[in-house]
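Objective 1b. Sequence-to-structure analysis of HAD family hydrolase.
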Amino acid sequence: MRLFFDKFPIRSKVSPIIGRTFGHPELMKPNPWPINQALDKLGLPPIRVAFIGDSTTDIEAAKLANVHCIAFANSAHKREKFSRTNAIVISSMREIFDSQPFE
């Protein structure tokens, strides 16, 4: 995570950071625990949140947490697989950044 923030100086715009809990693999996705932790820390209801993921377990976790899901499909195979879900499918993160500029 540190390398990412060294490369992209946006740390002040990213909070909270929720990660895996060491020694508790059962809390990893598709368990919605990390998403629910973020909702609690932000004080937001699920209806106001979109989770961006690039795997079927991400889509499953978003569904279990009752949040909107944006599926990042960086290959034709993923695009086809994700199109069979209820997620919004994108092929470039630019699609998000172009529609929702940082303030």
